[in-house]
Amino acid sequence: MSLKPQPVSVFGAPTDVGAGRRGASMGPEALRVAGLVEALVRRGVDAVDRGDVAGPRNPWQKPVDGYRHLDEVVAWNRAVMALASAELEAGRMPVMLGGDHCLAVGSIAAVARHCRATGKRLRVLWLDAHADFNTSAITPSGNVHGMPVACLCGLGPDALVHLGGPGPAISPSEVRQIGIRSVDAQEKRLVREHGLDIYDMRYIDEVGMKQVMEEALAGLDANTHLHVSFDVDVLDPAIAPGTGTRVPGGLDYREAQLMMEMIADAGGADSLDLVEVNPALDKRNRTARLAVDLVESLFGKSTLMRD
């Protein structure tokens, strides 16, 4: 299957309102400094930078009823959803630069609504160290960046569950989670109850990334919209230190490259989140530069002599 030639619209959502540490708000600029748009243009992609969506400042308050900054999280996600929806309607691929991973509620709500309107099936690849399936009742922190998958699947506050219309936006059967290695005890119970399809690091170690991606991409066809939600903490901290939720034992460089190349081989993504880059914790923008390298592979750059 060849890569889809759709034009790309990059936009930033510079907030860390859903996170537990400050700094992800600087992620969009770090990715721009690392040359993301220029790298896509060099690959022949019609890529434009739409600038940043706007939202409220991070008030840095304690949780209320199990959520930190819920009103602010909702406002940012509405802004993300609005811009992503406009780009999808214009026939362009939205690439959302976070910011923290709570913003995927808005981007995926837009994609899910677009799929319903166009009669397409949806597949979400969630590349992350965490399942992000917490709820207000079980969250250890109240940070909403640990809840977006649950919210999208109908477990969360009404303002997020119904963000893009009557929820839930997606079903667990539409999600494939890759690279998971940190799941809270109560969250594990919820994940099992809802049947999330998880390819954790042990499974990747046992069968290899090639088989994992073959399974995660199985069944894709021309009528499937593929959304990739890429949290840089899926990568091992040794190669990607610039993120606020580092977990040892993540993907190494070759595993990550193969993952992205196989997505490209399957036809590529139709929408993309690139989140949790925290330059305040990074070394000379190393994590953003690696993320750009991997996104190039997602758009067809091969590390091997097969072209």
Automatic annotation (TrEMBL):
Keyword hit for Membrane: no
InterPro entries: Arginase, Ureohydrolase, Ureohydrolase_dom_sf, Ureohydrolase_Mn_BS
Disordered: annotated segments: 1-23
A GO molecular-function annotation: manganese ion binding
Annotated pathway: Nitrogen metabolism; urea cycle; L-ornithine and urea from L-arginine: step 1/1
EC nos: 3.5.3.1
Entry-linked CDD domains: Arginase
GO cellular component term, pick one: cytoplasm
Stored SUPFAM superfamilies: Arginase/deacetylase (SSF52768)
Key words, A-Z: Arginine metabolism, Hydrolase, Manganese, Metal-binding
GO biological process, one term: urea cycle
The family this protein is said to belong to: Belongs to the arginase family.
NCBIfam families on file: rocF_arginase
Name this polypeptide is given: Arginase
